[in-house]
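Subject: Protein record for review, amino acid sequence with backbone structure tokens
Why sent: The fold of this protein is of interest and is recorded here as tokens.
Notation: Tokens come from a learned vocabulary of local backbone shapes, not from coordinates.
Attached in line: The record itself begins immediately under this heading.
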Amino acid sequence: MDLVLCHTTADFDALGAAVGLCVLRPGSRIVLTGGCHPTVRDFLALHRDEYPLIERRSVNPQRIRSITIVDTSQRDRLGKAAEWLDLPQVSEIAVFDHHLEAHSDIPATVTQIEAVGASTTLIVEKLKNQAEKSDIPFRLLPSEATVMALGIHVDTGSLTFEGATARDAIALAWLMEQGASLGVIAEYVEPGLSPQLQDLLREALNNLRSETLHGYSVAWVLLSTEAYVPGLSSLASRLLDLTETDALLLGNVYKFGENENNRNIDPESPVSNRLTIIGRSRIEGTNLSELFKPLGGGGHARAASLATRDVDALLTLNQLADELKTQIPHPPTARELMSSPVRSIRPETSVGEAHRILLRYGHSGLSVVDAGDRLAGIISRRDIDIALHHGFSHAPVKGYMTPQLKTIAPDTLLPEIESLMVTYDIGRLPVLENGQLVGIVTRTDVLRELHQQKARDRGSNAELSYCAVPESVEQLLRSRISPELWQLLSIAANIAQNRGWQLYIVGGAVRDLLLATDDTLALTDIDLVVDGKCGSDDSGAGVELASSLQKLYPESRLDVHGQFQTAALLWHKDSAFGSLWVDIATARTEFYPYPAANPEVEASSIRQDLYRRDFTINALAVRLGVPRSGELLDFFCGLLDLESKQIRVLHANSFIEDPTRIYRAVRFAVRLGFEIEPQTEGYIRNALASGIYYRIQGENGRAPALETRLKSELKYILQAPYWKVALQMLGDLQALRCIHPSLELDRELWRQLRLLDRCLNGRKKEGSATDYVTDVTDVTDRRKKEKGRRKEEKGRRKEEEGRRKEEEGRRKEEEGRRKEEEGRDNALFPIPHSPFPIINIPDWQMRLEVLIAYLAPEYRGKVAANLQLPADSIKRLEVLEAGKNQLAENLPKCELPSQLVLLLRNYELPVLIAIALQSPRSARRQIWEYLTKWANVEPPLNGNDLKALGYKPGPGFKRMLDDLLAAKLDGNLGDRAAAISFLAERYPQA
């Protein structure tokens, strides 16, 4: 365990430096050794879950490997955690500080104490240097950049304190480039006020008027002074913070005449005066700039000002306050924010079982309900960790849960929820309706809503922009799909709304919508998710919605998969929809009982449904229907990854749970022209190197993800036009080991695949859009050419000896062509565009069989069966080695074309191709010659001809036709008359 220690009563500088070190050293955990400043405490009440904090009590000292100390170099400022410095197994103790005057008594192995305004600056410089040297794009999370910027701001007085340096300013600038939120910084930085402003602050507090509307407090006050007062904006900000007001109008009226004695001006008297109003707002949807514009003011939506003269100051301020109140929107309620259904346990559940449930569902806490399903308490991951640390895994959770709870109702407004969380440092609030637990609102839910509000408020400088949100996804969607499809989605949304559900379009359709550059988006596959409980049966809301839609669209076909609470509506060559697949699912979460297993699914919320998906770019959703129709849900910054053109997985164990995601990562990367994000690539390599899939196959007998699901992904890749690039990427990742641990894409396997590709391309009709070569015209053309060649057969035998002499010359020519094309010492098929027999196997399957055939013979049939390939494919792979050995022995004996044909015609075409790919060049040439020259040659007479000549049908027909074919192949027969003479001589009739 690697720890970063903050000093007791930690400030923002200590916290910011600690967070930066955790970015530099992934996996490190932060320990607050003894409380923190009040502002830091308030900050962490909302943002704690965004940083790797751990309780001191939860640390097992015997597992500590290294300790890093920030913002102090003295043991006595570390509290009881100072004892860890003396542990024998601690290999490294590092100190980062900016207090030069302090005498260090810490036995550090690494020390950096420099004259900068903040310790955080030292860490930011390391991050900046690492980013500049890295070839991989580097970017902090906004939450990381923000807390580090706060550390520098607070410790340097926003660069105004004497100890502030240029290095601090450069570090701050870089953090702003990295996305530090000015709004959050302004909320927690406390600038000082001048004595005059302090007097005015007291006056404002005494005369402040306020009103609460929709859970938001609005305040206004008018101050009179003798002259203009600079710094009123700082006064307004301080007043806003002290009163915890959501919106404030601060007015200042003063005379501008010659009279010096103006201190007690009557604000209500319409005398010549000047009026300045400073406005500040934290309320989404309010726009102070628009509010002040009629009076000549302006600014930003959340911060604006105006200056006017000769008006009734108090009347003007009151009117503006009334207009501001009309701008306040109705904030979200707990019902809109909460996650539902809630994962709950009984009070008698053991701590160990509760821990297992947390791991299974990825929650940070569980609700505890009694036998009547009434809420009894909540137990957090922190509580469980401490109980486990002390060896109480067997104890019931009722001894560790928090029983005295703050709860909310479904109609509780967001501001009140936020206030409860901050005031009582609560990470989750149960939602009760009629005494029953119907949902839970977490810090994450609140933060997500606050961040999305700020992102939607595009005119605000205080925007905390984690992801760039399009202004109107609904308008974008409506403009790019057909009117008929939009009507279908609207009808579905209305049905869902009438049942109290929320409907979302999710996944690839949203991704493609945001990536599309054309005005029209041709969607053939749409995923819809219903977030809601179905009361009619256990099939799920998704199935019920699909059934309702099918009644309105009877031309569609309905497929139901009750086990997964999904249904699909399918149209085939419909006049309105064309070929369309609409998958409708109930929002659900999933759990993998063991790696590479099929997931177990349960009804859940839209957020959990998106979390179970493979990559961030596929975990996007658009809300359909009111309220907030067209709202884009992006819980995992998929928009940033779309913009950065990268494939990023949602959690570290994703590839352990489902190895097919490795193949999907490669497929999306190549298809979209994206890169696999470095950490995601690391997860892939770790999963493959662990060998977990094959241990699981041994323990459980099977791993479904490595069976039909893997075959489906292989099919997607191997039938795509970009299959070569994708396969090379899979080879570089060593991901072919998912097929078998010994399979790697080395030079020889790549050579065989290229040979196959040349073979397949050589027998395809140019411009064919299918993997099946069944084009009748192509067959007819080949037969016409074959007839022309038949006329030349008679002289071929005489030329055979000459061709053999020329063989060495052609080999040298082929060698030069091969080196020119590939630069490799491997021969390609020499006749790339010759006529070729029909192969009724898809190209992707041929390529897959080549991959499997590269394995040792004893593994081929088992791997093919594991992938559930067709029975004929499994059989081909099982007999391949025997066939290769037989041909290796018999092909050198074939001196005549007839001998070659009579030998090779007993083998299936795919088997011959597979054997050719693994055979020496001489054998490959013979097989290729058979396929392109002799395989389509037919005897000059057929069975009907034999009957017409008076021969009696029977087993002898086959011998006669074989002899005719052999004579023709060897050039001993010319025309039909010669064939008849040949029969009369060899098979005389009585």
Summary: Residues 258-265, 458-469, 765-798, 817-834 have pLDDT under 50 and may be disordered. The two ends are 98 Å apart (CA to CA). The longest strand covers residues 216-224.
